[in-house]
UniProtKB/TrEMBL annotation:
Mode of membrane association: Single-pass membrane protein
Localization, UniProt: Membrane
Protein name, entry field: Hydroxyproline O-arabinosyltransferase-like domain-containing protein
Keyword list, A-Z: Glycosyltransferase, Membrane, Transferase, Transmembrane, Transmembrane helix
Domain called Hydroxyproline O-arabinosyltransferase-like: residue spans: 67-359
Pfam hit, one: HPAT
Transmembrane residue ranges: 6-25
Endpoints of the signal sequence: none
GO cellular component, one term: membrane
GO MF annotation list: glycosyltransferase activity
Amino acid sequence: MGCGNLFFLVLVTFSVALITYNIILSANAPLKQELPGPSRSSSSITVDPVIKMPLDRSETSSSKRLFHTAVTASDSVYNTWQCRIMYYWFKKFKDGPNSEMGGFTRILHSGKPDKYMDEIPTFVAQPLPAGMDRGYIVLNRPWAFVQWLQQADIKEDYILMSEPDHIIVKPIPNLSKDGLGAAFPFFYIEPKKYESQLRKFFPEDKGPITNIDPIGNSPVIVGKESLKKIAPTWMNVSLAMKKDPDTDKAFGWVLEMYAYAVASALHGVGNILYKDFMIQPPWDTEVGKKFIIHYTYGCDYDMKGKLTYGKIGEWRFDKRSYDNVVPPRNLPLPPPGVPESVVTLVKMVNEATANIPNWGS
């Protein structure tokens, strides 16, 4: 190893150690001292009050604004098979019409390489120090993004934060605009309802609680420089929320989503709430103009095509059925009467598994 490479390795190692030291301090320090960021600045952009989509979105730009797709994942069987399917469809649509999709990175927060490094472009991030996630593994996501943004050579000026259980169904343009991110609004992220909890992390001098958008960190397209500012705050807010018993109880499994929404607001980064970003079967029944299928919910139906949610159906597709084993190739298609969104999901899973080499190995 040359002197230059040795110096770079030492520098990276020191940087990671320094950040780790800082997050340990921040987890035990008063949050107020850890949250930078001005209040949200006003914007002159015209906004549709229903979905907060700029009214001039249809205007085309003469040059592409490429974004880099980043997906955080553990090395579990469950996360890995989803990432392989996700990357298959990313490659399918990357160069399609109107696409502004650039590079792709799986941010693997296991701390060590796995056997899929050659199949999927991967950055290996270190997990949080033992015990710091308090049994909530999702806290590794913001910490992984902090490391990736600091250490990786990211060519694109924008980032799409996505997840393993996302399937891209058509080429994605850059939906962000004029300093605003583009994000999917989640009905269960309710800043007004939880104002008493959120004010611990978003003080009144930062602005009205409505400055916090009803979003998570994914799917979100945001400027790279903005995300570099947001990510450390997102990490610190996540850790502080998890440490606070009342907030932890109130937010449960969506705690890290609230933390991203707060961090984005603290740095004055607003978001276009883009409902057509993705669908979530079985509740969304048509693909339509959407760009992503998010298969977070189980799909259970009887053989007449009737939804039996909450009860295991005669036909079902649920990612949780494959937490320790990959789904087999050629899954049975849904019975007649099942919505298009579910049929499309299963067909796309089947196409990917049929074409990904060494599936099941």
